[in-house]
């Protein structure tokens, strides 16, 4: 509403300036053309029409649902199927043509109506929800037995096809959310039961690869940073929970490379990511976001592995679940092989792009990130395969966490970037507080540390924020 009210305020002020002689009539006309004063009433009318149509559509859908519920038991299976498919197709087709009409009007030189595009997108989202209801009702009608994981996965992939076909950001986000719900609901069945492998469990098992290969191209089709971020999140979390590296780290007789791949692969894949790897892409749209997410992965891994309990043996008598060992012997090798090969390809592409003499800062950053990845992969492998290095592992990852936090602080100060500065400050403060709480220290010492951390955080924050206007003024004078 604030954005909608802004042109009205501009129009009122511009009329007042014109009446007072501050601006001329020609300048007023320029402002009117720029902010489209003449279209404000039409936009308001379209908005209210869209609201009325939306409320009426909701009531219409509720009426149809009530009618179907009242007569559902008396209808045959064929009538149910035809009715539900007709409802889905009519909603989807109506939404498609309503959503597409503004684009066609613009191509013909007519004024596009934004309200119709929003209404069409709303109808398409409604058709996506009707698709899920159709899957559930048809499964009940034809006595198809399935789990909730299969329902959400089938629903999510159906919406994913719609998102690819229409290049709609909202449908893409909905598809990823539905597939993730299906993944999380099916993860327990895949991990703790020994039933036959179904298509849903196969998808759950290979969700890291599915997330990367299906969601990342969708982000380019929709040009959505949200979809790319959700794709990276789905890939990283599914890889961690499929491999379960924190539990595997405490066992020496289970594939020592598992934890190394799980910890090092996500930041290695994200930091080396380059949009130019796609043949049809000639711009870097998601590379900055991917590198920011890689730093988040580094911070999370370093922080988790800085705790001593992560490196200790489990208590006596603790055993893995009955099917856990079998699963670990049949790990998703295909996922790790393809994604690791993609990471190697990206790093080779990155080094080839840096063939020209780069700046010293770029060389240092690449070397530092490479060292992060190498140490993250080497230390857990050595701990499992060669000899137990619990104390050394704790020390190494605490040092890496401190280096990462300090580097973010320095980057924030150098570039006047609040996110980097505050991220580094909070990461450093979290490390100090966690170490104080983790180890058995005196309450007086804890109190002193909390006071010092709070004072340092406030002082550093005030200094950084006071520095911002000065930096902007100096750059403006230059």
From TrEMBL:
Domain DUF2157: 16-171
Pfam families xref list: DUF2157
Keywords: Membrane, Transmembrane, Transmembrane helix
InterPro entries per UniProt: DUF2157 (IPR018677)
Ranges annotated as spanning the membrane: 48-69, 81-99, 119-139, 151-183, 203-221, 226-242, 254-273, 293-311, 331-350, 362-383, 389-409, 421-437, 443-464
Keyword Transmembrane helix attached: yes
Superkingdom of this protein's organism: Bacteria
Protein name in the entry: DUF2157 domain-containing protein
């Amino acid at each position: 509403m604030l954005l909608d009210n802004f042109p009205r305020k501009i129009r009122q002020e511009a009329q007042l300036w014109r009446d007072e002689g501050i601006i001329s009539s020609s300048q007023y006309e320029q402002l009117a053309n720029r902010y489209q004063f003449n279209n404000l009433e039409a936009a308001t009318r379209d908005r209210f029409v869209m609201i009325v149509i939306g409320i009426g559509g909701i009531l219409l859908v509720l009426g149809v649902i009530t009618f179907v519920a009242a007569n559902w038991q008396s209808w045959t299976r064929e009538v149910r199927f035809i009715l539900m498919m007709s409802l889905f197709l009519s909603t989807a087709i109506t939404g498609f043509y309503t959503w597409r009409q503004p684009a066609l009007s613009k191509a013909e030189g007519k004024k596009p109506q934004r309200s119709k595009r929003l209404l069409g997108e709303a109808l398409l989202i409604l058709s996506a929800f009707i698709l899920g209801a159709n899957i559930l009702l048809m499964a009940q009608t034809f006595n198809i037995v399935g789990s909730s994981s299969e329902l959400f996965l089938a629903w999510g992939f159906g919406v994913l096809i719609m998102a690819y076909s229409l290049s709609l950001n909202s449908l893409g986000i909905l598809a990823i959310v539905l597939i993730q719900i299906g993944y999380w609901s099916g993860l327990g069945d895949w991990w703790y039961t020994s039933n036959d492998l179904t298509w849903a469990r196969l998808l759950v098992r290979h969700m890291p690869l599915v997330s990367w290969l299906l969601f990342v191209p969708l982000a380019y089709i929709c040009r959505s940073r949200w979809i790319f971020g959700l794709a990276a999140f789905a890939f990283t979390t599914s890889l961690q929970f499929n491999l379960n590296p924190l539990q595997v780290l405490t066992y020496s007789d289970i594939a020592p490379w598992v934890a190394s791949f799980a910890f090092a692969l996500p930041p290695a894949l994200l930091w080396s990511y380059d949009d130019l790897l796609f043949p049809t892409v000639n711009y870097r749209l998601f590379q900055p976001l991917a590198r920011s997410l890689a730093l988040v992965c580094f911070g999370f891994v370093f922080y988790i592995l800085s705790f001593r309990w992560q490196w200790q043996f489990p208590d006596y008598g603790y055993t893995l679940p009955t099917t856990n060992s079998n699963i670990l012997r049949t790990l998703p090798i295909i996922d790790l092989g393809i994604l690791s090969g993609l990471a190697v390809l990206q790093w080779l592409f990155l080094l080839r792009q840096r063939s020209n003499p780069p700046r010293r800062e770029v060389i240092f950053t690449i070397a530092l990130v490479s060292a992060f990845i190498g140490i993250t992969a080497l230390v857990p492998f050595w701990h499992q395969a060669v000899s137990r290095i619990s104390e050394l592992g704790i020390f190494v990852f605490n040092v890496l966490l401190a280096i990462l936090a300090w580097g973010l602080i320095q980057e924030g100060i150098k570039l006047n970037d609040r996110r980097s500065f505050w991220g580094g400050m909070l990461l450093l403060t979290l490390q100090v507080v966690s170490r104080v709480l983790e180890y058995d220290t005196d309450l007086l010492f804890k109190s002193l540390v909390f006071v010092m951390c709070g004072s340092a955080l406030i002082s550093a924050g005030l200094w950084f924020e006071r520095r911002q206007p000065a930096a902007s003024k100096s750059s403006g004078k230059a």
